[in-house]
Amino acid sequence: MSKTIFYARVSTADQNLDHQLTQAQGAGFVIDDVVADDGISGVSTTLSERPQGRRLFDKLRRGDVLVVRWVDRLGRNYQDVTDSIRHFMRQGVVIKTVINGLTFDGATADPMQQAVRDAMIAFMAASAQAQAEATKEAQKAGIAAAREKEPEKYRGRRPGYSESQLAMVRDMAAEGAGASAIAKATGLTRQTVQRLRSDFPGAEAVLSRWAV
Question: In angstroms, rounded to a whole number, what is the distance separating the alpha carbons of residues 50 and 42?
């Protein structure tokens, strides 16, 4: 017996599974089952790499209807979206979108209808990736602007050691001194000495961020 399965991807705090489901039901879809991924975002994460996305591949059967709010719920990568839709169509699954009420059916035999269908899939998949990349760039620009406006907010915790103390830790460690002896000589705690010894490049980077 065929089923209508609704798949949702909720990737940000302002998105809501209940809202997406209500929207689908309001469009006239009678949903038999819901599969949803929460907190998954990004262009590079494919549908099959998502926990519930993998489940979707196993769950769908010939004759089933897969309902999504829009194709970008299936992925933000052009290749991933087109591959996923075509895979499901080859399996005999019909894909329907809530927005604009589009239908993608692999049973279409007419060459012209196939061409139109495939062109639409390609266009929407490309649009999904372009939107995702634009959003990512906007986020990066926002973070850069915030760093420029409030640089200290993004420096992390102020280091509890000086450049001279770090140099002394490095020199004494190279000579084979133990953490306790280095701590006594530098005035740092033993835990701080051990942390510095485990990552000198990282310790130098912290000092660099706080350099005036």
Answer: 11
For the chain, how big is the Rg over CA atoms in Å?
27
Structure tokens at 145: 């602007």
Q: pLDDT by residue (tens digit) across 167-196?
A: 899 888 888 888 899 999 899 998 899 989
C-alpha 196: how far from chain center: 32
Q: Which tokens go with 140?
A: 């990066």
Question: Crossing angle for the helix pair 179-186 and 163-174, nearest 10 degrees?
Answer: 150
Contact 75, 84 (CB under 8 A): yes
pTM above 0.90, yes or no: no
Q: What is the pLDDT of residues 7-25, one digit of tens each?
A: 998 765 546 788 889 999 9
Torsional sign, CA 172, 174, 179, 180: negative
The proportion of the chain whose per-residue pLDDT surpasses 90, expressed as a percent, equals 21
Of 87, 69, 86, nearest to 128 by C-alpha is: 69
Q: How many helices (H) and strands (E) does the chain have?
A: 8, 5
Non-local CB neighbours of 110 within 8 Å, separated by 6+ positions = none
Locate the domains of the chain by residue range: 4-131, 163-209
What Cα–Cα distance (Å) separates residue 106 from each residue in 4, 21, 109, 140? Answer: 16, 25, 8, 39
> Is CATH 3.30.420.40 correct for 4-131?
no
